Amino acid sequence: MSDEDKKVPTLLDVARSVLWAMLGVQKSKNYERDFKHGKPSQYIIVGLIGVAIFIAIIIMIVKIALSSAGL
C-alpha cells in the first residue's frame, strides 16, 4: 500500500469524490480510499451541500429563462 492509500481523505478529497460520484465516475483507487478511511458523515454532509447548490443553480436558471421569455 502506498502512502496515498493510507491517508485519511481531506475535505477537498471528500468534495472531489462527491463531485465525481454525482457525475457517475470515480477512480477505483479513490473509491477504495473513501471506503477504507473516510467517514460516512463527511460524505453525507458534503453530498447534501452539493445537491442544495445544484438545486439552487437549476432554480436560478429556470427563473432567468422564464423572465427572459416574458412569463
Can you tell me about this structure?
The protein is elongated. The model has no long low-confidence stretch (mean pLDDT 87). 80% of the residues lie in helices and 0% in strands. The longest helix has 30 residues, at 40-69. The termini are far apart. It has 71 residues and is mainly alpha-helical. It has one domain. The chain is built from 4 helices and no strands.
What is the topological layout?
Elements: H1 3-6, H2 11-23, H3 28-37, H4 40-69
Helix pairs in contact: 2-4
Q: What labels would you give this structure?
A:
single chain; 71 residues; mainly alpha; 80% helix; 0% strand
Q: How big a fraction of the residues is strand?
A: under 5%
Shape: elongated
Termini, distance in Å? 59 Å
Count of beta strands: 0
What percent of the residues sit in helical stretches (DSSP H or I)? over 70%
| Main beta sheet strand tally, sense and closure | none
Question: What is the arithmetic mean of pLDDT?
Answer: 87
Helix-strand category: mainly alpha
